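REQUEST FORM: STRUCTURE PREDICTION
Request ID: SP-0412
Submitted by: Lab K.M.
Chain count: 1
Length (residues): 621
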Amino acid sequence: MKDLIVSIFTIFKYAGRILTGIRNTFFNLLFIGIIAAIVVALMAESDVEQPALEKNTALVLSIDGNIVEVKEDEDPFSTAVQQAMGVENPYTDILLQDILDAINYAAKDERISYLRLKMNRMGNAGLPQLEAIGKALENFRKSGKKVIAAEDYYSQPQYFLASYANEVILHPMGGVDLHGFGVYRLYFKEIMDKLKINYHVFKVGTHKSALEPFIRNDMSDADREQNKEWLGALWSTFSKEIAKQRRFSPVVIEDYTNNAPGNLSLVNGDTAKLALEKGLVDKLMNHIELKKYLGTMSAKDFDGSAKTIGIHEYLALQTRSYIESTSSKNVGLVVAQGTILPGEQPPGLIGSETLAQTLENARTDKSIKAVVLRIDSGGGSAFASEIIRQEVVALKNSGKKVIVSMGNVAASGGYWISSPADQIWASPTTITGSIGIFGAIPTFEDSLAKMGIYSDGVGTTSISSGVNLTLPMSEDIARSIQLSVEHGYSQFLSIVAEGRSMQVEDVEKLAEGRVYDGTKAKQLGLVDQLGDLDQAIASAAKLAGLGKDYSVVYVERPLSFKEKLIKRFNHRLNSFIQSKNIANPFIGAAQKALMPVSELLTLNDPKGIYAHSLLFGAPQL
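STATUS: Completed
RESULT:
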C-alpha cells in the first residue's frame, strides 16, 4: 500500500513538472513572439505612420530643449514610461541641423503657408547657433512667407530669434527680458578652508581661470578683464543684430536694459506695454486672440484652429542633411561636441579613441575627398587632445584637406585639436583661444585629522606614497607635477606655432589662457575665416577641387551589429512615439544645475593635466 501511494505521488510530481515545463515554455515562446513582433513592427519603415501634409499648412517650429550639434543616445523606453506618467522634459536635445533643415525645406515647400516660432521650452543655445537659425529664418522670409513669433514671455535667446520674425506677438501679461551677458560663478575657497581641504593647483597662464572657483573667493582681475572684453564683443553683436532685424537703433536696447526702473515707472510697471512702446514687439494678444489670428493665416483644422504640422512630423517627410550619400566625391563631416576625454565615449562627449577612429575612417574612405571637423568643446584632457590631433595630422598627410568649423566654443583642448587644420573657420561670436594647461589635486589629510583619522607609513623613496589623497603632498611630487604642466604648456605652444605657421614667441604672447571671441581671434591669426558651417564646407570642397558636384556626409565610428540593432530599434521606437505625439522624457532641473560639477568629475587624464576652458562659466544669454 505504501509503495502504491509513493508511486502515485511520484507520478503526480513528474506530471506536475512536465506541465510546469510545458507552461513555462509556452509563455516564454509567447513572450518572445510578442517582443519579436514589436521589434519587427518598429524596424519596418512602413509601420511608422507618416503624417499627410495638406496645402496651406503652418509649420510650428517648436524648439524644445538644448540646441546641440550631436544628440546623446536616447532611451525610448524611458520616453514611453515618462509619457505614461504625464511628465514633459524641457531639457532634452534638439539638433541644430534639424532646425535648419526644417526651415530650409519649408521655405521651398508650397504646402507651407507660414512658420510659427514656438520657443517656450527652449533650453541652452550658443550665440553662433542662434545666428545660424536667424540666417535660415531670413532666407525663409525671402521666399515671401511670414515668420510669426508668439510667446507669453521672451528670454534673451528667445527674443534674439523672435527679432527675425515678420511679427513679434506678446501676451498682455508678458514681457521681454533683455539684461545683457555675464559670467557668474560660485567660489569655494572659504568652504574648502573650513573643511580643511588642501587644493593643489598646477597651471601655466595668468588667464587660465578654470580652477579659480577652488582657490579664490572672487574673480581675479585678469579673468575679469578678459571676460569683460569678449562678453562686450558678444553683447555688441547681439544688440546690433536685433536692432538690424527690428529696424531701430541699438540705442533702444541700451536704454531698455540700462534704464529699466525709469522706463517701467512711465508705464506703471507694465512690462508688456513697455516692450510694445519700445518697438520690441508688434502686437499684444492673449491666447484666445492669438488662436483666432493664426487661424486666419492658414487652412482650418477640424476644431477651427490653424492647420499646423510640428517639426518632427515635418522632418519625417524630408531627407535629412548629411545622412547618406552615394557620390564618389564627398566632403566628410565629423562632429566633435563635449568635454575631451581619453578612450571611447558616447555622443555628447569627445573620446580620444572614438574621435580618432572616426577620423581614421574618413582618411581611409576613398569617397571622402575633404573633411570638415565641427568642434564645440571647451577642451578637457591634454593627453586625449594630443591623440586626436595626431589623427588630424595623419588625415592631412594622406592628402585630404581638413577644415575646422568652430561652433559655440572651441577653446583650450578644442583649439589644440584645431591647430593643425588647413583652415580654421569660426563664427564672430565663437569663444576660442585659452591656450594654457592646468592640473589640480585635492588632499584631505587635515579634514581627516579634524575627525581623528590619520594616515602614516613608510616607503623606499621620497615619492613612494605617490598622489595619496590622505597625505600631504610631498614637495618632490608637487614639483614633478608642475614641471609636467610646464612641459605640456610648451608642447601646446609648439603645436599651435607649427599648425598656424607662427613663431613660438608670438604664440606665447597670445596664450597664458586668454580667451577671445571669433572676430578677435581672426585679427590675431588664430582663425583664418569668419563664417558658419555651410561656408566651411564650401571652402573644403573648393580646396579639394570638387567644384559644385559633391555631397556632404556625416562620418561616424563603425558600429557593431549589436550597436546597430540597438540604435535602429531606438530610432524606430522614438519615431513611433513621436508619430503618436508622445512627449519626451524629463531629465530634471537638478541635473541641469549640477552639470558643471558632473563635467568636472568626468575629467580623467592619465597624468591629471588638462587643457580645459570655461568649466564654470559659459556666457549666460
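NOTES: The chain has a mean pLDDT of 84.
Reviewed by: T.R.
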